Every structure is written in structure tokens, then in C-alpha cells.
Amino acid sequence: MQDTSILGAESHPLHLHGFNFFVVGQGFGNFDPKKDPANFNLVDPLERNNVGVPSVGWVAVQFLADNSGVWFMHCYVELHMSWGLMMAWVVLDGKLSNHKLLPLPADLPNGLADAFIDKNPNRSGHGYGFVRFNEKQNI
């Protein structure tokens, strides 16, 4: 997650519902996908369910998507949600019966169901908020 588009004095405290995650890296400036992952702490990273994305910086987290459902991720600063600092992760069904999403309610308004259905099951999900059950996510 990166905050280099708007110069400001405050960080963005992000929270992910339904999961704890590991903070594997953070820094200032733009994230460099060729250099920065080499410095990730994959041995003993901090475990959290919220993290501060530094102003003019980035943070990388990793979590195991093992809790099927639709999970909200958002900035705690309410005004920032109006800027788009919120999203939903849709963690799709796993193979076991207790890893299945419940069916959508029959009385769900028309059109709303489309927001919860992955129309391309071969998609990796990165960047769309769709993840496969038990898939490690680096964001």
C-alpha cells in the first residue's frame, strides 16, 4: 500500500477486517518492486490487523487468505474513505465444506449479486480484491 500521490503530514491507519496480517516491509518514497522486496522481513514480522501507511511512503503486508467471505479494508480517517481509501477483499471458497461461503440471500436486490461474483475464475485476483482461499497475499 502506498501513499505518494498526495503530500500530507498524516499517515493512513489502515485496518483489515477478518484477518491479522504480517508487516513485512515499509519505507519512504515510491515502492521499488525490484529492490525493496529483498529487504522484506519474512522471518519474524510484526503481526497486526491495522498498520500506518506513512505519508509519502509505503508498507507491505502479507496474510493468508483462509477466512472465506467479503472483508472490508479501510483507512480509519473517515474523510480518507471518501478519497477511495477503502476496499473489499472477496476471499473465495476453499475445498473443504467448512471453507465455503454461504449462498447469497434469495431476496438480495437485483444487480447487487454481481458485486460478489467472480466472473473470471482463472484471474489471480491481485489488484481486484479477489483472492483464493488459503492463498498468501502480499499487498
UniProtKB/TrEMBL annotation:
Domain Plastocyanin-like positions: 7-93
Keywords: Metal-binding
Metal-binding recorded as keyword: yes
A GO molecular-function descriptor: copper ion binding
Name of a matching Pfam family: Cu-oxidase_2
Source organism, top-level taxon: Eukaryota
Similarity comment: family membership: Belongs to the multicopper oxidase family.
Protein name: Plastocyanin-like domain-containing protein
Organism: Populus tomentosa (Chinese white poplar)
